[in-house]
Amino acid sequence: MPLGLPPHLASSTASLAVVRAGHAAAAACLVAAAAVVVTLQVTLPEITVWPALIVLAPMIGLLVLLDRSPLAFIGAGYLFVGGACIAWFTVIGTAQLDTVPRNDDFTVGLVKSAVILIVGVGPGILRAVAWTTAGLLAAEVSSAVVITALGASWTPAPGPIILWAFLVAGLASLRLQRLRARTALPLLYRAVRDEMLAETRRGFERRATALVHDTVLNDLALIAQHDEGPLRPGVAESISADLATLVGEDWLAEDPDDMPVEAADFARMLADATAGELAVAVSGDLAVLDRIERDARAEFLRAIGQALVNVRRHAGVAEAEVVIGAGHDDVSAMIVDAGCGFEPSPGGDGRLGVDMSILARMEAIGGEAQVWSREGSGTTVALRVPATRPAPVVASGDGAP
Length: 401
Description:
Helix content: 55-70%
Shape: rod-shaped
Distance between the termini: 55 Å
Order of helices and strands: HHHHHHHHEHEEHEE
Strand order of the largest sheet: 1-2-3-5-4
Largest sheet: 5 strands, mixed
Radius of gyration: 41 Å
Structural class: alpha+beta
């Protein structure tokens, strides 16, 4: 985007900057013209050229007013006073220096440049071109009228025309760049939109992959390992809950931001993960789960649940421990068992249950997971996720002021 600004601001900002630059250059020309008059008056005291300064004062005042309040009638007044100033300078120069009036006089050329450098009144490239052209016409018409009235022949001066052409070329270039930017912006926005859609799609794919493992693959493994005969009540309830999750869209739903996390959410996760076959000792304050953003909170609980499923499936023990804690800017959970353990491989253990349902799931929500295990020594899984809500402030109970 031009100037690093949004399109609706870049256009007016760029053209306004050009107008301000033109006004500054015009002020420099007027100051230079005044310096020339003062130098002539001091160097040649026998002539009287100081009255030329009289018309410079209102012209400078109108320029300052125009820069502060870019109104059309102020701009028109500036051009009118500028034309009068050009005529006045020409008359005084001819009378006091006893020269033939010429359209290419240096001092008069400075005043003409100041008139042309009005550039514009407010933002807008086309408006700036129009006002610059009006300044050129006002300067040359005023000069032509006074020179003809003094009995001399008028010919166009190249300096003001070159200045006008330079300004118009610069404004046209700025206009062209703006048109090109307008053409490129839709393509840029489309690319950003496509990238956001792709990232959203990847996020859903990660969640879907983890969900398939948590439900379908786990249930198939459970059925394969189950004894012949009817399924145990806890196992049947777990499979029914997984089927309801797959058929429904609860895993895609977005709850309100202000919905508090209740202990029932954690208890439901425990019931689904343990299927009545694993006893879990829970310690810590479950209220700290409220400090996690809603989507991250759901993934955090699913990662804890998958760690417990792994204990139930592979550890060979009937007990595990879950510890919930929180720091200043994060919430953590630790799942510990004293089962058979395993040897994790670098970058993951190579198992879908750990890699996708725990490690990748925590990474997707900006958290992290670490697994410590050794054959015959049990397994510890540590999860950490950033907290989006600050920790509650504990009031001091000592009664101190």
